[in-house]
Amino acid sequence: MQKENEKTEIPDDIFQALVTAADIIGGDSTWMKVKRIVLNLLSPARRKLFSTRDRKTYKQHPNALELEIMDKYTHITGRVLLDDDVEPEEDT
Questions:
Q1: Are residues 74 and 18 in contact, defined by beta-carbon separation less than 8 angstroms?
Q2: Sign of the torsion angle spanned by Cα atoms 78, 34, 7, 89
Q3: pLDDT (tens digit, 0 to 9) for every residue of the chain, 92 residues total?
Q4: Cα–Cα distance between 78 and 85 in angstroms, integer?
Q5: CB within 8 A of 43, min separation 6: which ones?
Q6: Which among 89, 64, 80 has a CA at the least distance from the CA of 9?
């Protein structure tokens, strides 16, 4: 299990997809739009690293990799990604 202060390493191909998504999106700053573009730029094997919607609530529960990607996006663009559809993943 990952410790609270440990960061997840973002693979290079996912980072490059994130940079491309930031260029494409411009001023839009919702996580679901960024995620959709990033997923379209990645191979199916890499897409498996991302979370899916909850079947009952349809809410997103970002995993550690996605949270790190959101932080990196903020660092790259200066914009915070927000989305009403996202709920932080609970530690179990």
A1: no
A2: positive
A3: 455 556 789 999 999 999 999 999 887 678 889 999 999 999 999 999 999 888 898 888 889 999 999 999 999 999 888 765 655 555 54
A4: 21
A5: 13
A6: 64
d(CA 79, CA 34) in angstroms, rounded, equals 12
Which single residue is written with the structure tokens 């009952």? 56
Helix (H) and strand (E) counts for the chain? 4, 0
Tokens of 56: 């009952």
State the first-to-last Cα distance of the chain, in angstroms, to the nearest integer.
Answer: 10
pLDDT at 30: 86
Contacts of 36 (CB under 8 A, 6+ apart): none
Q: Strands (DSSP E) along 1-92, which ranges?
A: none
70 touches 62 (CB < 8 A)? yes
